[in-house]
From TrEMBL:
Pfam families: EF_assoc_1, EF_assoc_2, Ras. It comes from Plakobranchus ocellatus. Residues 5-171, 417-580 form the Miro domain. This is Mitochondrial Rho GTPase. Its main location: mitochondrion. InterPro entries: EF-hand-dom_pair, EF_Hand_1_Ca_BS, EF_hand_assoc_1, EF_hand_assoc_2, EF_hand_dom, Miro, Miro-EF-hand_domain, MIRO_dom. It is a single-pass type IV membrane protein. One of its GO terms (molecular function) is GTP binding. The chain crosses the membrane at residues 617-635. Its EC number is 3.6.5.-. GO terms for biological process: mitochondrion organization. The keyword Aminoacyl-tRNA synthetase does not apply.
Length: 651
């Protein structure tokens, strides 16, 4: 929710003897004081006794006790200025426009937003009203919110003076209503149109009774009585011909209602709505609303929660008007209508899955949000606010999950992460782009048709790891930056070093990057032999790729081709290595027919359960099955890679 003002500071100014101090003392004591000091002390009224439940500070000004610098300081500090004049003193009325209002502009700037209340005191001394002569002043000075006539002596309208002063701060007119045009300001129309779009849950451009009642509950904590709702619709229908269609309220009708509230002096109704949807006095969304504090610890990552995915999926369905499972360019523009800018560029179509026309599918759409949440959670949280996530939730934090530190995952030999980051490094023209696009099931022929200016350095898609869908994000690291990568920039869940089997100088780059960046870290590393549809040439390096992997206990080189059908094994292997980083050395052990120590211990532990008691049989069986299946699965992955590598060497 947008932050409300925590207090209101009211400053009373005006000529001498107009009754500024008497007004304050009459408000506090509820009786008129015949003798008053030259200036009242600053008074703070507690929140629980003010109509708007906001602490209110009332400050008096006296030209006898204070100089001009004091006056300017107080003007700059206050929330609202009450210029007091005497209704029986024509000079004090004239000085509203010849001195006081120009002086405020001089002090605060010509376009200042500090609201002003004109207060005509001493109405008990005349039967003549001065409001008619004051109205032109309100037209000439937009900062004047209202004018109130009162009497400090008879206490007439004393409370109203300070109520309107509070109201001018909390529910200002100028940002939302243009009195000359007698209509809402452009910013107010834009803000209310955004709110209408968010509340129109079925995207039919109408607010149904259910949608109106949900809106009422959000803004005012109570639904409208059925008869009251019918009365409201009747008023709209009477005044706006197309304000009601098919018994639903249109955007025109919605804007008319808010205009009517303001014209009837019920500014607080429109402002309550605006503030519930995050707007400040400037009609900009507040920072508290779009950027709640989120602390991501070192070694932690950010993912979307089930609530986050559900909201985004519903939003996709809302704007997929033809129900084809994709968002056309027009549908995508409509989806992001409530955002200040379009967050996705043409590169998104080459980052996630699309249909044949390049339109983002539901899977691709959710993947792009997953990518944004991983790489820039602040941006993800901000756009969730723009899109209306907070309409049905307290704030965006319920959409974000912060994973535990990676080092804890390594210690416990398990992770609950669902999104894994893979850095792809390789020399120029070794096939990195093909590898990235292959993750989206795009073969080499399709890649050749892409506009390279719209290519992204990222791709993301789901990959199955032991029957569970995990997101794998590939990031092509700029070749020129590879030599200068810092530990922070290197941070990822798995590294992929790519060489071209037809280029004898390409593997040297992979070997150098591994020895420079990855040999002493805990990041699992896979070497990929791209363009595997061609015969492999001998690499200009002291070790063959297979020998290099064997020496440094890496999995054998993974052959990759995507000339027709994409070889998906490489992505499964990368995702599996990322999900199980503690198994970094396991593949090598299995290749030399060794069981890792932890697997031996696990099997011994399970066997001991069989010997303890019959009740342990089921648990022991499950334990043995898990240990055996894990060993077999990894063994199969390893041996398939070994076979591929051996075949390559024979060639």
């Amino acid at each position: 929710m947008a932050s409300f003002k925590r207090d209101v500071r009211i400053l009373l100014v005006g000529d001498e003897k107009v009754g500024k101090t008497s007004l304050i003392l009459s408000l506090v004591s509820e009786e008129f004081a015949e003798e008053v000091p030259s200036r009242a002390e600053e008074i703070t009224i507690p929140a629980d006794v003010t109509p708007e439940h906001v602490p209110t500070c009332i400050v008096d000004y006296s030209g006898q006790d204070q100089d001009e610098s004091n006056l300017q300081d107080e003007i700059r500090k206050c929330s609202v200025v009450c210029i007091v004049y005497s209704v029986v003193d024509e000079d004090s009325i004239q000085r509203l426009t010849t001195y006081w209002l120009p002086y405020l502009r001089y002090t605060l700037g010509e376009d200042h937003r500090t609201p002003v209340i004109l207060v005509g005191n001493k109405v008990d001394m005349t039967d003549v009203q001065t409001l008619e002569s004051i109205l032109p002043i309100m037209n000439d000075f937009a900062e004047v919110e209202t004018c109130v006539e009162c009497s400090a002596k008879t206490l007439k309208n004393i409370s109203e003076v300070f109520y309107y002063a509070q109201k001018a701060v909390l529910h200002p007119t100028a940002p939302v209503y243009n009195p000359d045009e007698k209509e809402l300001t452009l910013l107010a129309k834009q803000a209310l149109a955004r709110i209408f779009r968010i509340c129109d849950l079925d995207n039919d451009s109408l607010l149904s009774d259910d949608e109106i009642n949900m809106f009422q509950l959000k803004c005012f904590n109570a639904p409208l009585h059925p008869q009251a709702l019918e009365d409201v619709k009747a008023i709209v229908k009477k005044n706006v011909p197309d304000g009601i269609i098919k018994d639903g309220v249109t955007l025109k009708g919605f804007l008319f209602l808010n205009t009517l509230f303001i014209q009837k002096g019920r500014h607080e109704t429109t402002w309550t709505v605006l503030r519930k949807f995050g707007y400040e006095d400037t009609l900009q969304l507040s920072q508290d609303y779009i950027a709640p504090k989120i602390n991501v610890g070192l070694g932690c990552t950010t993912e979307l929660t089930a609530q986050g995915y559900q909201f985004l999926a519903r939003l996709f369905d809302k704007y997929d008007e033809d129900r084809d499972g994709c968002l056309s360019p027009t549908e995508l523009q409509n989806l992001f209508y409530t955002c200040p800018i379009m967050p996705w560029g043409p590169d998104v179509n080459n980052t996630v899955c699309t249909n044949g026309e390049g339109w983002v599918t539901m899977d691709g759409y959710l993947a792009q949000w997953t990518l944004t949440t991983l790489l820039d959670v602040t941006r993800a949280v901000e756009f969730l606010a723009y899109l209306g996530y907070n309409y049905q939730h307290d704030n965006q934090l319920s959409a974000i999950h912060i994973t535990r530190e990676k080092k804890i995952d390594l210690e416990k030999r398990q992770t609950a992460r669902n999104v894994f980051r893979c850095h792809v490094l390789g020399a120029k023209s070794v096939g990195k782009t093909a590898l990235l696009q292959g993750l989206l099931q795009r073969n080499l022929r399709y890649v050749a048709t892409l506009n390279r200016q719209n290519l992204s350095n990222f791709t993301i898609n789901t990959v199955q790891v032991y029957g569970q869908d995990k997101y794998l994000m590939l990031h092509e690291v700029d070749m020129m930056m590879c030599e200068m990568l810092t530990p922070t920039e290197l941070d990822c869940d798995v590294a992929c070093l790519v060489y071209d089997v037809t280029n004898p100088r390409s593997f040297e780059f992979c070997a150098r990057m591994y020895l420079k960046h990855f040999i002493d870290c805990k990041i699992p590393t896979l070497i990929v032999a791209s363009k595997a549809e061609y015969p492999e040439v001998r690499q200009d390096y002291e070790l063959t790729p297979a020998q290099f992997c064997s020496r440094f206990k890496l999995p054998p080189p993974q052959r990759f081709t995507c000339i027709d059908k994409v070889n998906h094994d490489v992505y499964v292997k990368l995702a599996t290595m990322a999900a199980y980083p503690n198994l970094k050395r396991l593949v090598h052990m299995l290749l030399v027919h060794q069981r890792p120590l932890w697997l031996e211990e696990r099997i011994r532990h399970v066997k001991s359960l069989f010997q303890s008691s019959p009740s342990s049989y089921i648990h022991a069986s499950i334990g043995l099955a898990v240990a055996a299946l894990l060993g077999i699965a990894v063994y199969k992955v390893a041996t398939s890679s070994s076979a591929s590598s051996t075949t390559a060497l024979r060639r």
